[in-house]
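Customer ticket, subject: "Can you confirm the structure for CBS domain containing protein?"

Message body: Hello, I'm evaluating your service for our small team and ran a test protein. I'd like someone to confirm that this is what the system normally returns, since I don't have a reference to compare against.
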Amino acid sequence: MEVREVLKVKNSAIFAAHPESLLSEAVIMMAENDIGSVVVMDDGKLVGMLTFREVLQVLAKRQTERRSGPTPPIAEILVSEAMHIDPATTEPSMDVDELRRLMINTHSRYVPVMDGDTMTAVVSFHDVAKAVLEERNFENKLLKAYIKDWPEE
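Agent reply: Thanks for trying us out. I re-ran your input and got the following:
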């Protein structure tokens, strides 16, 4: 199975933020749309990825810094301060097993799908798991039907 097949069974909406937008706005977008990530785009190019992991990391860092002296308010944090620069990406033709290895090796739950220089989607670990499960269920049905209709000798 290839990534393009996973994309057929998922929502195609892409949520994006600009690096200079407020982190709080990106978090609100994520919460309102029940999503775990937004892509960070600048001039139509992918420049980073923002997930709840990066949000928690920057908040923990600010809290630690706050203990040692004054820091700017959390409300002033920019997306660029929290985003993961140069995230792992995939292409539509990548094999899903290879994508799963990439996601595990890079600890990425969300991976942008690139078609050349154009980002076409974001595939999540959940999307991959759902597609693999559906494929396995379909294969099991076919095998069971085949075994049920096994010719007698």
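A couple of notes from the result: The chain has six helices and six strands. Helices lie at 3-7, 23-32, 52-67, 79-82, 96-106, 125-148. Feel free to reply with more questions.
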